[in-house]
Amino acid sequence: MDIDKIREEFPILAQEVYKKPLVYLDNAATTQKPKVVIDAISNAYCTINANVHRGVHHLSQLSTEGHEGGRERVRQFINAKSTKEIIFTRGTTESINLVASSFGEAFLNEGDEVIISAMEHHSNIVPWQMLESKKGIKLRVIPITPNGELDIDAFRKLLNERTKLISVAHVSNVLGTINPIKDIVEEAHKINVPVLVDGAQGAPHIKIDVQALDVDFYVFSGHKMYAPTGIGVLYGKEKWLEAMPPYQGGGEMIAKVTFEKTTFNELPFKFEAGTPDYVGVMAMTAALDYIENVGIENIAAHETGLLQYTTSKLSEIEGITIYGNATHKSGVISFNVDGIHPYDIGMLLDKQGVAVRTGHLCAQPLMDLLGIPGVVRASFALYNTHEECDKFIVALQRAIEICR
Ligand code: PMP
């Protein structure tokens, strides 16, 4: 990978912050966008913009081709069987809410159990909690081991005849842990329980093959993988999506409407009420092409290199606690410095041009479990360099000096 060339493709990276070169290490929150993605948005509005599916005119046909071509591109990217299984949403959060609402309506009743894990993002906790109060279901939580891995023995013990769904992160946005999805699916399927995987932090870094994983639902956000905000994906096995009722009502999702009765459109349109973000889909197509051109395995290997390098440098600093030391770990390092609030570290890093995340990272239950108010998180993408990791370490040492 020619990192210098890659960096040139991301215009924002050339910026200075407080007269210091920007070191962007908040990629787990959102990634920056390459020029091809920005151009795809501009091209769509400059040359083909028209609403999709409804028009006989030339532009509408081009737009529809771009949109449906994007669906096929996503299908290939995650190796789904059919484009019927690819639903466009606003992102991971909306995808999980769609399943909670629709699967919940069709299949969950009082006393049924949904299993999540202790390392989930609020997006994979709150929608299920809402079903607790709405439908009387019960949430069960897989505990984690001291090094931040799922306790698989405990998971096995949680499975029972009341279990109706398992919903877990592929990769933790706090601990970086890559969870053993295949093993979880195998266990769950032994008792015919479907599995939803929150792939927000998985799809950007790991080659996803939904058929090989045999997951029932896999959800992710475009903006964490070099695509724009506001576009995301729900993959669902056709047998589940067919059996689930629509999530929202409106245009696009109908076959026929009368005042007496409405029949619904076929998959995937049944779940896509209203004008979709077809420009977002076209730009996401460009992002997926971009990732495949570089090679997701190359991206992962580069990020793992940065993770190992930075972890070892960080460990040399006195008073550092790193959260999450899983054997299989993605490019995320969450840590604290003894006696210094994470927010202060984040502010002082920012003043030196280094962008990191601080706080509970939308995982308050995990923070409670760890007994901390929050963390500082550095997270990597394909355009980060070893030099930037060094700058981050130097800036962190300076921040610690100022606070001590
Ligand atoms: N799940 C995980 C593991 C995440 O990291 C995030 C984003 N921080 C989300 C869900 C939510 O993603 P979005 O805000 O794009 O819907």
Report on this model:
It is a single chain. The model has no long low-confidence stretch (mean pLDDT 97). The protein starts with a helix and ends with a helix. It has 14 helices and 17 strands. With 404 residues, it is of the alpha/beta class. Helix 3 packs across helix 10 (278-294) and helix 4 (92-107) packs parallel to helix 5 (126-135). The protein folds into two domains: 3-30 and 295-403, Aspartate Aminotransferase, domain 1 (Alpha-Beta Complex); 38-292, 3-Layer(aba) Sandwich (Aspartate Aminotransferase, domain 2). The chain has a seven-stranded mixed beta sheet with strand order 4-10-9-8-7-5-6, with helices on both faces. It has a four-stranded antiparallel beta sheet with strand order 13-14-17-16, with helices on one face. A hairpin with a 4-residue loop joins strand 11 (254-257) and strand 12. The longest helix has 21 residues, at 58-78. The structure holds 4'-deoxy-4'-aminopyridoxal-5'-phosphate.
The CATH architecture name of the largest domain reads 3-Layer(aba) Sandwich
What is the mean pLDDT?
97
**CATH class value of the largest domain:** Alpha Beta
Reported by name, the CATH topology of the largest domain is: Aspartate Aminotransferase, domain 2
| Uncertain residue ranges | none
Q: Rg, please?
A: 22 Å
Sheet with the most strands? 7 strands, mixed
Shape: globular
Number of domains: 2
Strand order within the widest beta sheet: 4-10-9-8-7-5-6
Q: Work out the strand percent.
A: 15-25%
Question: How many DSSP helices?
Answer: 14
**Percent helix range:** 40-55%
**End-to-end Cα distance:** 40 Å
- Annotated CATH homologous superfamily of the largest domain: Type I PLP-dependent aspartate aminotransferase-like (Major domain)
Bound molecules: 4'-deoxy-4'-aminopyridoxal-5'-phosphate
Question: Number of DSSP strands?
Answer: 17
Helix/strand-derived class? alpha/beta
